[in-house]
Amino acid sequence: MPAQIDFKELHWLLDIVQCLDVGVVVLDRQYRIEVWNSFMENHSGFGPDRVHGKNLFELFPEIDRNWFRRKMDTVLQLGTRAFSLWEQRPYLIRFENYRPITGEEDFMYQNLTLLPLAAAGGQVERVCLVITDMTEVARLKRRLAENGTS
């Protein structure tokens, strides 16, 4: 018997997703956006109503399509997580650095996690992207390297 959805519980779970200080995006198999949290809205300037159902590559042409498709295809086929660290690839989506006082960097360095999201039947139908701002870590690491202490 399938579990009943508790809409009160669903409401606070959605609140958590909106309040996280990481980007949360859910894509279907055609790279269409289904979930877009407030972190993504704040850094992209695009509200959920503007991006819902839109293709990620059309909204963000700077994304390396071949690289990202390989990553996402692996997650969809194997049902396992995939990662990309800022040291390997500085960002998925080029967001401006939003720290004007310490903002020595032109853009936000990002770690990316791709999580498989299975449907009720067990088949992975969607992928959740978690984008973590690593700009401060990148700035400090660069500063240490410039000072010869890395």
UniProtKB/TrEMBL annotation:
It comes from the Bacteria. One of its GO terms (molecular function) is kinase activity. Keywords: Kinase, Transferase. Residues 9-79 form the PAS domain. NCBIfam families: sensory_box (TIGR00229). This is PAS domain-containing protein. It comes from Metapseudomonas resinovorans NBRC 106553.
